[in-house]
Structures are given as C-alpha cells and as structure tokens.
Amino acid sequence: MRNNETKGATIEALDVMIQNVAQGVSGFWVEDYEGCGNPKIFPEFEEGLKRGRLVQKEHYLCPWNTAVLYGKGYGNINTGCYYSCSIDKARFLPEKMIKDVFVRFRKRLLQGSYDYKEDVLPLLTSNEINYIENEIKKAKRSEERKHNEERNARLKKAAALIDQYPNEEFLLAAYYGEKDYISDENGIVFFDPDSQKDVVGAEKMSYDEYLSVQLASLRHDYRSGFANGFFNYLLEFKGQIEKIRAKHICFKRIFISGIYPDGAMFDGKEDHVWMDKTGFEELNVGDSVSFSADVYRYIKTGNGKLIDYGLRNPTGIKKIEEYQLPSDDELRMQMIGK
Q1: Count of CB atoms situated within 10 Å of the CB of 314
Q2: Alpha-carbon distance 167 to 170, whole Å?
Q3: H or E element at residue 210
Q4: d(CA 6, CA 313)
Q5: pLDDT (tens digit, 9 = 90+) per residue, 283-333?
Q6: Is 52 left (phi over 0), alpha (psi -120 to 50) or beta?
Q7: Cβ density class 194-233: b for 16+ within 10 Å, e for less
Q8: End-to-end CA distance of the chain
Q9: What is the pLDDT of residues 163-176, one digit of tens each?
Q10: Residue 260 backbone zone (phi > 0: left; psi -120 to 50: alpha; other: beta)
Q11: What's the confidence (pLDDT) of residue 302?
Q12: Is the pLDDT of residue 128 over 80?
C-alpha cells in the first residue's frame, strides 16, 4: 500500500517534470544551497535553498539514480540517490531526450518494472549514453580551452614579474589578477587586487609592485601566529609590556589563543611585538594584559620591502596577573599533536 502511495507521488512529480521539460532536469530534494531539486520546475525548492532547511518531495525512486539510468552493475539502487546519482550527466541531455527518459521511466514505473530492484534494465538507450559521453568530452575540451586562454592571458599580463621571479611562473600563471590566495610553508600571497587596500604601506603601489613585495617575502620569517587570524578566529591575546615609548609599546611576548573552523582550539606566540600605545596609556612596564585586536598586514622595511603581520585596534584591554606562557617546545608539541 505504501509503495503505491509513493509511486503515485512520483508519477505526479514526473508529470510536472514532463510539462516543464524545457527547464531541464530535477531531482527530489534541496537543502541549504545544495541538492538535486530544480526550483524552476518545483518553486517550493526555493525555500530550502534560501533558508537552509530540507525540502523533499515524496518519491518511490528517482530516474537519475545511476543504477536506474545505466542498469544493473552501475551504482547501487539501494543506497539512495545521494550515493549513486547521475543527474549531472543527465543535464547534458537535450530537451527531447529528457522528455523521452521521463516518459520511459513513467511507463516502467506503472508497469511494475521497479518492484524488484535486483535486476534493473538501463533506462537510457545506447544513443542517449553516447550523446552524454560525447557532450562530456566536448565540455571538457571547452573547459581546457578556456583554462589555457585564461592562463595565457595571465602570463602575458604577468610577464614583467615572471622576468623578476622566474621560479614563481607557475603561481603567476595560475593566480595573477584572481580573487584568490596561496598559503603554504613558504608564506602567503594574496592575489586579489582588492586585498592591497588593507596593507599598510602599499597604498600607492601598483598591482605588480604589491605582488613583488609578497613574492619577495616568500621563504622569509613572518609572524605566522598573527597570520592565522586571516584564516581562523583569534579569541584572545595576552602579553607582558617590555618597553614604553611616546606613541608605542612593546610586548616581550604575546600569547595567542584561537579556534580553527572545525572548532579545535590552538595556541601560538609572537616575540617582541610593537603596537600603538592607544588604549594602553595607563599601563606600565612589567604589566601583563589580555585583549582582543585586529590582525593587519603591513610592509616592513630595513632589509628590503617585505610583508608582515601586526595587531591594531585593541579592545577589551584588562590587566591580569603575571602568568607563565607555554615554552617554544610546548607549542611545537601542541602543533605536532594536531
């Protein structure tokens, strides 16, 4: 009885899909910006996409299940469509072929062809399978052509920098002018032209000059503990004041407490950190404090122009009791344990 009800619901959905075949294919669910449901065919799916809640249409079986489309030996009809889905391949089909697949699936469903799922015949014809495979190859060639054209355009624009940094040709070919960044053991390079606006000292640089400073900074020491603030969440800083000048103060060491996107906590430290004195005026040498602050990038000079990271705009400044910071060995062991 239950199977008959879900089959009926599937038939109703298929009828809507057939009537709206010009809008492409659709599955039966969406949730939080993902899923297979097509809101152009089923407007109710828009709610799930916008509000991040599950919207699912009752159905007996989905025509885009890999085992349904390609038959026995392809996919697993019993694991559900999430683990055995070929809707992305079905999207290559033209309107008439999509309609043919819908009508064929509807007929087989009514005939009971899917009552016993152990031996399922392919829903797609050999002609449809070949069409999909040819379209996939064409799309791949088109994507490769587009990729090469974009890469060559970046190489042309970055020619002067490549002459200056021939070992970084791969990076410049891949990222020059892109809203992206790379981060590895050698350092961090922000390629997004807009990122330059927030770098103190880079205000009047050209884009090439800005990249040049970052490339020159690779494999140089930088305050990686503070740099974590660009990719993770820094909770708190603690430090002991070592020096006080007219407009600045220096912390002997700043202890960093943060959290990774997955919720895991981490600690770090930076030595001899200078900050603007604003907010710390009432404190003295030897005082220990905790506070929050913004991480920023700046261009330091002295041994050429290099990118480094500092703290500014402190908030929540509180004097605290003197405390013992983790040793370098303890911090290294903590990182090994991640």
Answers
A1: 17
A2: 8
A3: helix 207-217
A4: 60
A5: 999 999 999 999 999 999 987 899 999 999 999 999 998 765 556 665 555
A6: left
A7: ebbeebeebeebebeebbbbbbbbbeeebbebbbbbbeee
A8: 53
A9: 999 999 999 999 99
A10: beta
A11: 81
A12: yes
234 has which bridge partners?
Answer: 258
* Tokens found for residue 148: 């090469």
Which amino acid appears at position 30 of this protein? Answer: V
And the tokens for 335? 């990182």
Q: How far apart are CA 102 and CA 83, in angstroms?
A: 21
State residue 324's pLDDT score.
57
Are 81 and 133 in contact by the 8 Å Cβ rule? The answer is no
- Percentage helix, strand, coil for the chain under 3-state DSSP, each rounded to 5: 40, 25, 35
The pLDDT tens digits for 254-294 are: 999 999 989 999 889 999 999 999 999 999 999 999 999 99
Tokens read off for 228:
């974590």
Sheet holding 55-56, edge to edge: 34-35, 29-31, 55-56
Six-digit token string for 264: 């895991």
Q: At what angle do helices 126-157 and 95-111 cross, to 10 degrees?
A: 140
Per the prediction, the chain carries an average pLDDT of 91
**Residue 133: in which H helix or E strand, if any?**
helix 126-157
CB 49 within 8 A of CB 29: no
Two tokens at 214?
């970052």
Reported as type and span, the H/E element at residue 111 is helix 95-111
Mean pLDDT of the region 29-44:
90
Phi, psi of 313 (to 5 degrees): 55, 55
Q: 338 pLDDT exceeds 70?
A: no
- For residues 23-35, give the mean pLDDT: 89
Enter the tokens of residue 299: 């261009």
